[in-house]
Specification:
With about 350 residues, this protein is an all-beta fold. Helix content is about 0%, strand content about 55%. The chain has no helices and 32 strands. It has a 5-stranded antiparallel β-sheet, with no helix packed on it. Strands 4-5-6-7-32 form a 5-stranded mixed β-sheet, with no helix packed on it. The chain has a 4-stranded antiparallel β-sheet with strand order 8-9-10-11, with no helix packed on it.
Length: about 350
């Protein structure tokens, strides 16, 4: 049995914790844990690399103090997402290894049952699910200058539709509860470097470019139900900033930051690079307060954050070979102990 500790993280250095919140560490292991996602009930999913390579990646669910291992197989399970109904989607490796790694399929875990949404011999990766149960992801189709062209696929609960053309590499899709879908369209044929644009698809309309033409290398968008879209872009060598789009207008959110994630209140979690220390640290912007909070100050990276509508943030905290999951959560009611030990790690193997 693996025992998992829920550790309270005390404020140190430049860490600033918003009132009525606390930071806890929900895992403390010798392996690498990354890509956490959180829903509005505080449920968190992430993948943990239990061995030396990606074939040991497994999916975990944190739910009300209990850590549940959802997969126990010999294939790659990675990039999970979760909606407010507790439905989880992720990419699972199948088939032979190829030049870009194993072939990937999209699977959905709902009420203890596993459903394979794709099984077509191509690589489907990076799924995101909304509260309607609708899902978007990228599908690698080859071709193009670097043989990495991809299209965006949309699942409406019954059928799968391709919503982008096949001329470029369409990646990093996100979706809100109105089925607005944003993604990055990469042009790897551009000279001297690759280029990109942020695309937006709204039901009943053709996809359009929403990033300004002068924005250099925009990518990895995030979207909320207010119709706001944010993304990272390049402002110099190793220097990144974040733009925010709303109602056709684009503004500079910050000239220092990357990896933005929006909630429906307009709050944003993101990370900042500290060149002198070679580290990334996690930050939070609360819209109603119009205030920034630095959530970490460590000699290692704090990246890949996600945020829910309560302003709770989850992220990966660690180094190249190891990382744990940290959680900025609302303060527990009186009588609850934030340092409670999680008594068991349940293993629920899934059928292949």
């Amino acid at each position: 049995m693996i025992v998992v500790l829920l550790l309270a993280i005390s404020a140190a250095g430049q860490v600033q914790i918003p009132p009525r919140y606390e930071i806890v560490q929900i895992t403390e292991n010798a392996y690498f844990e990354d890509r956490p996602a959180i829903n509005n009930h505080g449920q968190i999913v992430f993948y943990g690399r239990l061995g030396a390579n990606e074939f040991s990646d497994e999916i975990f669910l944190y739910d009300d103090g209990e850590l549940i291992r959802l997969t126990d197989d010999d294939v790659r399970d990675t990039d999970p997402d979760i909606n407010d109904d507790g439905t989880i989607v992720w990419s699972r490796g199948i088939g032979p290894d190829g030049p870009y790694g194993p072939t990937l399929e999209i699977v959905m875990w709902q009420d203890g049952e596993l459903t394979r949404l794709t099984d077509d011999g191509v690589s489907d990766y990076g799924p995101e699910i909304n509260n309607l149960g609708h899902i978007v992801w990228s599908r690698l189709i080859r071709g193009g200058c670097d043989d990495v062209n991809a299209v965006i696929c949309f699942y409406d609960g019954s059928t799968i539709e391709q919503i982008s053309d096949a001329d470029w590499s369409h990646q990093t899709p996100v979706i809100n509860d109105h089925d607005w879908i944003a993604w990055t369209r990469f042009d790897f044929c551009a000279e001297p470097w690759w280029d990109s644009e942020i695309m937006l698809s709204v039901p009943g309309a053709e996809p359009e470019v929403i990033s300004p033409a002068e924005t250099y290398e925009p990518r990895a968008p995030t979207i909320n139900n207010r119709g706001q879209v944010a993304w990272i872009f390049q402002i110099g060598y190793g220097e990144h900033a974040i733009q925010l789009w709303e109602d056709g207008a684009t503004t500079l959110f910050t000239d220092w930051g990357g990896g933005p994630r929006l909630n429906d209140r307009g709050d944003i979690c993101f990370f900042r690079w500290y060149n002198d220390e070679d580290t990334y640290q996690m930050w939070l912007y609360l819209d109603l307060q119009d205030r920034f909070y630095q959530l970490s100050d460590d000699p290692f990276w704090n990246v890949d954050g996600d945020i829910n509508d309560a302003g709770e943030v989850v992220w990966s905290s660690g180094d190249y070979s190891w990382a744990d999951i940290r959680f900025l959560r609302r303060v527990a009611p009186d009588g609850m102990d934030a340092g409670t030990k999680v008594d068991a790690l349940h293993v629920r193997p899934l059928d292949p």
